[in-house]
Amino acid sequence: MTFKKAEWPRKLRSQHWYGGNSRDAIYHRGWLKNQGHPHDLFDGRPIIGILNTWSDLTPCNGHLRELAEKVKAGVWEAGGFPVEVPVFSASENTFRPTAMMFRNLAAMAVEEAMRGQPIDGAVLMVGCDKTTPSLLMAAASTDIPSIVVTGGPMLNGYFRGERVGSGTHLWIFSEAVKAGEMTQEEFIEAEASMSRSSGTCNTMGTASTMASMAEALGMALSGNAAIPAVDSRRRVMAQMTGRRIVEMVKDDLKPSDILTKQAFENAIRTNAAIGGSTNAVIHLLAIAGRVGVDLTLDDWDRLGRDIPTIVNLMPSGKYLMEEFFYAGGLPVVLKRLGEAGVLHRDALTVSGAAIWDEVKDVVNWNEDVILPAEKALAQSGGIVVLKGNLAPRGAVLKPSAATPALMVHRGRAVVFEDIDDYKAKIEDEALDIDETCVMVLKNCGPKGYPGMAEVGNMGLPPKVLRKGITDMVRISDARMSGTAYGTVVLHTSPEAAAGGPLAVVRDGDMISLDVPNRSLTVEISDEEMAARLAAWTPSHEMPASGYAWLHQTHVEGADTGADLDFLKGCRGREVGKDSH
Ligand code: FES
User: Fold this and answer.
1) Minimal CB count within 10 Å: which of 48, 141, 243, 389?
2) pTM (predicted TM-score)
3) What is the pLDDT of residues 424-448, one digit of tens each?
């Protein structure tokens, strides 16, 4: 921890708009005064942008306007001047073709909203899957002091006395309907039971994972990730966050001070311990790319390799975020990592203190929710990175969500050229497939879908499900919802639409998955592979214009974070010329 506080008072960037008595200053102040602000608010105090991803069509963040009032209260209390700024909100459950296609657009828009406006510090109000990484990417690219407060998870779902996890039970129930074990009417009855309150998915899905990543990176106050959305302590957290950002601005505590290589290493190990989403791989690589930290896919395998998954939450385990909060939440996990010697204890956080100081005295209140290491769900819980002639630049698999017996598997490929091909064939009883086969799905990567949809956990064929089989090896260049599970190889890179080897796998090829040896191969000769690749031509159409064109033209591979190539790096917070 080498951070040195800036001197205070000093002139802040917002004073370039509001300071002094020039015509421009009067112009800027005068218009804002139509909100009823007294003149002395423009005296050089920190102006805090509350960047709010609230939207009626982002239901997971639907309560953030109310929560923003508590952030504002905290900012006022600490002597700041809060301004609430609505920003691009990419809802996971609404946006088509996929919210992921818009993560980078959101990051680009938010970056410009931060830099182009009189904001000295930012509170990133996020929750649903893509909102957290997109705002963190923007903050990293502007390096304006920023702090995350998430909306918090929904309360536990219950259906007929059993816990129901967001997303996880959608997959379980839909397979049960296909297998004839559940009626459509029961499925509809279960629908409402999954989402009982405001908040994000209540499993350790991508939203909860990214909230945990923000906390492990040091970008949120300690304890933020797990507090339920409707718990009064969530509102207290929002208020404390508002107070804290004002001090961060005074100290000039910036994302680049916090988002160090050590912080990313802490986050990767945390992801292994919580059984977090594979989506965190892509998002952390992208955030690191913005702040200039050299983070690679191989770091994920190396750092997570011996970290046990100790958080017993769906989809890997049995509980939900509400119970994680009652057990003590993420600080308990960080403490355990620190005790095991695998946490960089002196990594700086938004609090201004080292991460270890934040967590060293916390208590685990439920050892069935946060397990002792010897009872871990997986002893090596980290994301596995597989390589081989099918994935020269890597593919990922989440061991805690997979079937141990399938970790070494050889099977015949059953190929789906794209998601439409999969949907057209999967329920066909004549499809030549059984549980020993390997399902291969192409053209669902960053360019292919486009946007890299969460379809990698493709449902099994009904005729296999009826045998009581619940898992098969599946391989794709897609992503998988953090709420999903199975022996699913994801993010295969290069993707099929970019001419990766996945593009030329054929029905009947033999595929070998060997997780202990980190290998993924299709059993064809180098010559055959070269011949097939030479004959390959793209099958997807390039959009002629619009953001889809920009995305398809510039998106990078999943192995480096799927950012747009021209958005990587930190462009700083310099104020542009005044237009008046
Ligand atoms: Fe928004 Fe899960 S769909 S958090």
Assistant:
1) 389
2) 0.97
3) 999 999 999 999 999 999 999 999 9
